[in-house]
Amino acid sequence: MLILQVLVYAVLIGGIYALLASGVTLIFGVLDVVNVAQGAFLVFSALLTWQIWTWTGIEPLLLIPVMGVLLGAIGWAIYRGMLVRVIPQGPGMTVLLMFGVALTIEGILNLVFGNKFKSVSPDYFTDSLKFGGLVFPMPQLLAGGMAILVLLGLYSYLRLSWAGKALRASSQNADGAALVGISAKKAAGYAFAIGAGVAGVGGVLLAIMYPIFPATHYEWIARLLGVVVLGGFGSIPGAALAALLLGTMEAFATTFIPQWAPIFFYGTILLILVFRPQGLMGVKTREDVA
Amino acid sequence: MIEKMKNPKVFVPLGLLLLLGLAPFIIPDSEYEQTVLIACMLLAIMASGWNLISGLAGYVSLGHSVYLGIGMYTGAILGQAWGIAPMYLMPVGGLVAAIVAALLGAIVLRARSHSFVIISIAALWTIQLLAQIAKPITGGADGLVIRPPSWAKEFGPTPYFYIFFGILCLTILLARFVMNSRLGAGLVAIRNDEGKAAAIGINTTLYKITAYSLSAIPFGVAGAVYGQYLSFVNPLGAFGILASVTLVLAALSGGRGTLWGPVIGGFIIALANEFATVTSSGASARVFILGIILILVVMFLPAGLLPTVSEKWAKHRNRNVAVKFIDQTSIASSTSRVDTAAIQSRAVIEQIEGKNLLEVHDIRKSFGGIKAVDGVSLGIKRGSITGLIGPNGSGKTTLFNCMTGVYTPDSGSVLLGGEDITGHKVWTRAHGGLGRTFQITRLFRSMTVLDNLVAPLERTSPREMAAGRYSGEEVSRAREVLAFMGLQEFEKQKGSDLSFGQQKLVELAQVLMLRPSIVLLDEPASGINPTLIGKLSDVIRSLNDQGTTFLIVEHNIPLVLSLCTEVHVLSGGRVLTSGTPEEIRNDPQVIEAYLGPDANLEVPVD
Q: Residue B125 and residue A277: Cβ atoms within 8 Å?
């Protein structure tokens, strides 16, 4: 029974990881940029959610669209204002730029919110559903369910809409996409906005599940990179599968060997990048036609 | 020497370094100033060390402070066990850091660009976690307390000041030594184009691991004494990501890839850090300021302070000097005047039995569902100029890449002079006598033509790697090869300043440096003008007369048919037919399948 219960947690947490990682993997797929500021975006959104909730007492889940749009706009501005200039200098420099953005956000959040844990606790915070002997804590159930819904929506949007197809075309061959009228710059800005917007949505969900303080963005980006690396850079289904796998491992480790829990993420990053750099579902490309 | 001392590039930094060494005497009651300068020197040491792998070879490591932590723990743990002060263990700290780096490097340096950056962070976090878990040895999350020696109170920070000063001087010497060595030239070649570096015979794995391991030494040495200076070591302090980012920022802002840039950057960033600590309420503001500076440097000063300033300075000084114009036609006419015996290939010297110099047997290579090469067997006769033609997508380039070692074939074998080289690395093949050029030229753009030629090493012993860049017979040989190609005028030009056609000639010259017995040319005539095509044919014929075998992949059919003694035609990943140019020209199968019914294969008559 304990194992089944841990599995329930694993799936709910895995859903959240999958959503959060989908933003990173989308941005990488289209822009070839490892957005290490995604964790900072998340924490920023979560702390803002906490602030609004403290002031107004509003149901936090209602803030999902607000935070999605807000972070999306910020992401777009960061792309147009900074990233676009740095991308030609190669991947090392874009990672450094996004690290600078992450540190700046962390510094600002530290100054505004201080270095204390904050958590959003609406009335249902301590409720749980009981079903067949299993416990479904309300915050986890709502956040996990919402994450899976948003992820499915995002995935079908990318699969079915014209804009989504344009993004995928641009991610596979930017020059070719430009030839058929897809502006690589616009596609990239759009992808970065969606990726950051996903972090905005994810931040709200995190706020009701976990206590947050600014420096936790390192933990989050470590988790997300682990998921994205295992799933294969650029693949959303890969990220979803990897999120479930790593979520499960983490849930079991937290129950049985808590101090070792983070090693699954770091260890996964090391092992996968060295021995199967394309991840579970990434594609190995021909080098000579790049 | 006196001439050299007048150069501001030499005496300004040395003078500043001397001034720094005298600081404890110049500044009265300088305890505070000395601690600030120690922080500056530590950052400069780390930035200079990082520069060896990330600045020279271009592998950006975001977790390099891990080696400082390893030095700190080495000093603390062994110092406690052996009952001595950790500062006496500085050499051990450096050694342990170098060994860990060599082991870790053998794994992590397999990854490139994005992956390497992420791995370097993940390695830092992993080791931090291990230090927290291994409580019996490391003291867990609380870390270890280091009791300072009894004299420490009496002298204040001054002994530490001079220890760090000494380490800084040694680190600068190490960096200077690496930069002026063959190893340094090879690392810059790797940063420019790793695949190409391998193709001209650079053992890229060995170079990268050596540089990575060397780069960890200053960290390990400094770490052993730094732990004692702080009087404690814990996982968060020793393996913090922030320290790693700070040192990258220092190297970046000063100028990565240069000797003094990381040192200058170390002082600037450490002083800014101190300023932020003094003027504001602590850590939050420091993180914020660090982030802002990082963004600004990446966006507006990506090359770093020193290169930007010295470029401005050079422009200012050279504003009245006219750039020398070099006429292209002088290249075309100058070949014959040079004694070509100097370019002798090893094929003349070595007389190996066997008719075919290069053979492939039943090579297969698929990409996903596409069989790019589907069972090709063919032989290249010793002393021949063999052509390989076929329509786009017929598998020429893939076969070519299987021969040169860029790809490992799914099945089949490659034989060079009767020896099976299927599993050999690219650089081993290059040293074994198999040279290649690229369809789109891949010169090392930031290096001079001469550097492009001397970068590869024939033997990779430590002595060879440590040898000076412009010493030995390689340089005179490089000049002979350049003269043979009529390129001697371009010796000091940068790769990126040459025209496309000139780059193709330099690329061929690079290959000749390896004394190849066979040269594989990938579309040598594409994108260059007819005069240079004529020149190229002359060079190929003249080398062939001396015994060098050629395999040419080319779309310019008249060129292939006029130059080659034998031609293989590929179609759909298989050999369609082989024969003399005469036979190929008249083969209706070739005309039908490859060129279409209306093709004209006549060699144009001048």
A: no
Tell me the pLDDT band of A283, cut-offs 50, 70 and 90: low
Instruction: Give bridge partners of residue B531 from the DSSP assignment.
Output: none
Q: What is the DSSP letter of A290?
A: -
Biggest CA–CA distance in chain A, Å, is: 59
d(CA B498, CA B484): 18
Q: What does the alpha-carbon distance between residue B1 and residue A288 come to, in Å, rounded to a whole number?
A: 49
Q: Measured between CB atoms, which of B241, B288, B295 is closest to A97?
A: B295
DSSP state of B150: T
Residue A115 touches chain B, beta carbons under 8 Å: yes
Residues of A in contact with B292 (CB under 8 A): 100, 104
Of B123, B294, B398, the CB nearest to A103: B294
Nearest-CA neighbor of A188 among A28, A25, A52?
A: A28
Domain definitions of chain B by residue range: 2-313, 354-441+516-523+553-597, 443-505
Nearest one of A18, A72, A3, A22 to A44, comparing CA atoms: A72
Of A99, A115, A270, nearest to B122 by CB-CB distance is: A270
The helix-helix angle for A217-231 and A2-31 (nearest 10°) equals 80
On average, the pLDDT of chain A sits at 85
Please state the φ and ψ torsions of residue B569, each to the nearest 5 degrees.
Answer: -110, 125
| Residue A192 vs residues A67, A75, A147, A243, B8: alpha-carbon distances, Å | 15, 6, 19, 21, 46
Sign of CA dihedral B492, B495, B499, B505: positive
Superfamily (CATH H level) for B354-441+516-523+553-597: P-loop containing nucleotide triphosphate hydrolases (3.40.50.300)
CA distance B537 to chain A (A): 26
Q: In this predicted model, what pLDDT tens digit does every residue of B540-591 receive, in sequence order? A: 888 888 888 999 988 888 888 888 888 998 888 888 888 888 888 888 877 7
Structure tokens at A118: 């904050």
ipTM: 0.90
DSSP string, B66-134: HHHHHHHHHHHHHHHHHTS-GGGGHHHHHHHHHHHHHHHHHHHTTS-HHHHHHHHHHHHHHHHHHHHH-
- Three-state DSSP class for A287? coil
Other Cβ atoms less than 10 A from the Cβ of B82: the count is 12
Interacting residues of B173 by C-beta distance below 8 A, sequence separation 6+ = none
Return the pLDDT at B337. 40
The reply to whether A250 touches chain B by the CB within 8 Å rule is no
Would you say the pTM of this structure is higher than 0.90? no
A99: which chain B residues are within 8 Å (Cβ-Cβ)? 62, 245, 291, 294
Write out the two tokens for B296: 């600004």
The structural architecture, per CATH, of the domain B2-313 is: Orthogonal Bundle (1.10)
Residue that has been written with the tokens 């983490």 in this structure: A250
User: Which of A202, A144, A150 is CA-nearest to residue A8?
Assistant: A144
Domains and CATH numbers, chain A: 2-275 (1.10.3470)
Selecting from B110, B126, B285 the residue whose C-beta is nearest the C-beta of A263 gives B126
Beta carbons of A106 and B62 less than 8 Å apart: no
Phi, psi of B580 (to 5 degrees): -75, 160
Which residues from B are below 8 Å from A270, CB to CB?
107-108, 119, 122-123, 126
Please state which of the ranges B265-274, B351-360, B396-405 shows the lowest mean pLDDT. Answer: B351-360
Task: Return the H-helix or E-strand segment holding B280.
Answer: none
Tell if the CB–CB gap between A277 and B406 is shorter than 8 Å. no
